[in-house]
Specification:
The chain is of the alpha+beta class. The chain has two domains: 70 residues, no CATH class; 34 residues, no CATH class. Helices cover 18% and strands 26% of the residues.
Length: 104
């Protein structure tokens, strides 16, 4: 795979991994209504948006500012740390540009 396609793309399983923290962490934006582990991974949980998720979607809450939200792990993109010293770069829809958010 890496010889033919050196850059990873967001497939089903990678997408599942990216959104799993929305319903499996200390603070959740999605609630699990039902779970069936006999089904394929993308069909195991039936989810709904909870109160926290609605506040996030409405722009009334910031995911990193939530009490009990796990601190993101350090990640480097283009030689820049994405979350050094309690700060994390993210996209601001209001400013239409990346901004530095302080969560600690």
């Amino acid at each position: 795979m890496t010889e033919m396609e050196p850059l990873p793309y967001l497939g089903d399983i990678m997408f599942l991994s990216a959104i799993r923290p929305l319903w499996s962490g200390k603070t959740t934006a999605l609630s699990v209504i039902s779970r069936d582990v006999k089904k394929p991974p993308l069909q195991q949980e039936l989810l709904c948006v909870n109160e926290v998720g609605r506040a996030l979607l409405a722009g009334k809450q910031h995911w990193l500012a939530l009490k009990g939200c796990d601190e993101p792990s350090e990640r480097w993109v283009g030689g820049v740390s994405s979350n050094a010293d309690g700060r994390c770069w993210h996209w601001s829809e209001q400013k239409k540009q990346p901004v530095l958010f302080t969560y600690a």
